[in-house]
């Protein structure tokens, strides 16, 4: 069965392609390579024995999408393509809304034209905004994300909900990811941020490899057990399996929302400590002021995904740091 994977050469998309192939699906990638490299498809082949068909193209280009749907009998779409840097979205709101929202609209119109009505969308825990209660559960009202990136995810969720209200023959799954980290255990694919990493795990591994001198831990006076922020880290291979579970889930004529997280909160200092155990030495780090916009603590209630899709995380923090480090060590310059 052919699955169109938008943004399939990116971090989460590439790991999902491996899992799709492993489960007998045929992923077809469309990616404009604004944040990834085509060599990823070689690595996917090295891991899984099959190279996904690759279209170089932008999802805002309707002609390319129509060509893909005409040339391939696509069953479903997993929609990863988008810009994802929270801080950058504040300085480039128009680019973020254009890419993420307009891109999703063009994709949905092309799907409708091709009569492909099953979509799995990469949403984010950011749509919860600030909630009075932790863990976050899907029945909570969404909040007010504080930046254009988060708002773009919330708008796309709303667009998909409105689409379903109007046309009940779609099958729509909104997956709200918590904090994806880790890499495939082969060390052949992983997260390859351009420039200075925004996220904790790639920053840690770049310090460990000697690319950056020291990790700044943003804030030590939060109301959390050790004063640092608490998040729900999820191994990217568990996340990839969550997409296959969503594909296998009987969701015809339906819209469903799932949190994809471990259900467990981990502090920044706990991540550093787990990394140091695998690394075998101390990591240079220091406390720095709080980062604007960071929430003190949140994690997922992931019971719904377990009950309905039979999915739950299997990999632990130790696997996440081990595989992140293995990827970084084997690819000091990322994909070259
Ligand atoms: P990524 O940047 O590694 O992958 C996104 C891919 O989409 C890249 O390969 C990029 O080149 C491509 N792309 C971007 N705009 C495109 C366009 N207009 N047309 C075609 N291709 C385009 O990011 P990722 O971490 O793999 O994230 C995948 C999705 O998951 C994104 O939508 C992101 O917002 C969402 N998400 C990520 C996280 C996270 O922490 N990584 C958390 C929550 C949600
Ligand atoms: N952190 C540091 N130093 C760093 C980087 C991060 O101390 O150099 C801390 C942050 O303050 C935070 C934690 O590590 O407490 C995790 O930060 P990340 O940037 O890795 O992840 P966030 O939780 O901020 O962001 C993630 C996703 C976003 C999503 C957001 C809200 O990356 O896509 O969750 O759900 F929008």
Task: Describe what you observe in this structure.
This protein has 336 residues and is an alpha/beta fold. The protein has eleven helices and 13 strands. It has a seven-stranded parallel β-sheet with strand order 3-2-1-4-5-6-11, with helices on both faces. Nicotinamide-adenine-dinucleotide binds next to helix 1, strand 2, helix 5 and strand 5.
Mean of residue pLDDT values? 98
Radius of gyration from the CA trace? 19 Å
User: Main sheet?
Assistant: 7 strands, parallel
Total number of helical segments? 11
Q: Give the overall form.
A: globular
What's the short version?
It contains eleven helices and 13 strands. By secondary structure, it is of the alpha/beta class. The chain is globular and about 55 Å long.
Secondary-structure map with pairings?
Layout: E1 2-6, H1 11-22, E2 26-31, H2 40-48, E3 53-56, H3 62-71, E4 74-79, H4 86-91, H5 93-113, E5 118-124, H6 148-166, E6 171-177, E7 179-181, H7 200-208, E8 215-218, E9 230-231, E10 233-235, H8 236-248, E11 254-260, E12 266-267, H9 268-279, E13 285-288, H10 303-309, H11 317-330
Parallel strand pairs: 1-2, 1-4, 2-3, 4-5, 5-6, 6-11, 7-10, 8-13
Antiparallel strand pairs: 9-12
Helix pairs in contact: 1-2, 1-8, 3-5, 5-6, 7-9, 7-11, 9-11
The structure holds nicotinamide-adenine-dinucleotide and uridine-5'-diphosphate-4-deoxy-4-fluoro-alpha-D-galactose.
């Amino acid at each position: 069965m052919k699955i169109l994977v938008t943004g399939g050469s990116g971090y989460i998309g590439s790991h999902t392609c491996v899992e799709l192939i492993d489960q007998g699906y045929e992923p077809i990638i469309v990616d404009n390579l604004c944040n990834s490299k085509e060599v990823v498809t070689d690595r996917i082949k090295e891991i899984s024995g099959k190279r996904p068909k690759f279209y170089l193209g932008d999802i805002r280009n309707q002609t390319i999408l129509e060509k893909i749907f005409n040339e391939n009998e696509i069953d479903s779409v997993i929609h990863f393509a988008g810009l994802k840097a929270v801080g950058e979205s504040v300085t480039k709101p128009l680019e973020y809304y254009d890419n993420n929202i307009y891109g999703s609209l063009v994709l949905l119109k092309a799907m409708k034209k091709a009569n492909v009505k099953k979509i799995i969308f990469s949403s984010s825990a950011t749509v919860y905004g600030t909630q009075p209660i932790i863990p976050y559960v899907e029945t909570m009202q969404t909040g007010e994300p504080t930046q254009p990136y988060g708002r773009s995810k919330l708008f796309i969720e709303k667009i998909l909900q409105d689409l379903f209200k109007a046309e009940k023959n779609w099958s729509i799954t909104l997956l709200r990811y918590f904090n994806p980290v880790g890499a495939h255990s082969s060390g052949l694919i992983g997260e390859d941020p351009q420039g200075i990493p925004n996220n904790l795990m790639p920053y840690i591994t770049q310090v460990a490899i000697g690319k950056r001198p020291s990790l700044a831990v943003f804030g030590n006076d939060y109301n959390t057990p050790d004063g640092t922020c608490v998040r729900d880290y999820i191994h990217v291979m568990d996340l990839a399996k969550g997409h296959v579970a969503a594909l296998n889930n009987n969701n015809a004529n339906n819209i469903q929302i799932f949190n994809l997280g471990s259900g467990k909160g981990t502090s920044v200092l706990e991540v550093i400590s787990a990394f140091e155990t695998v690394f075998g030495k101390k990591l240079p780090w220091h406390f720095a002021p709080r980062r604007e916009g960071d929430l003190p603590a949140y994690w997922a209630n992931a019971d719904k995904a377990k009950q309905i899709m039979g999915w739950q995380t299997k990999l632990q923090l130790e696997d996440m740091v081990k595989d992140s480090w293995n990827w970084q060590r084997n690819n000091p310059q990322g994909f070259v």
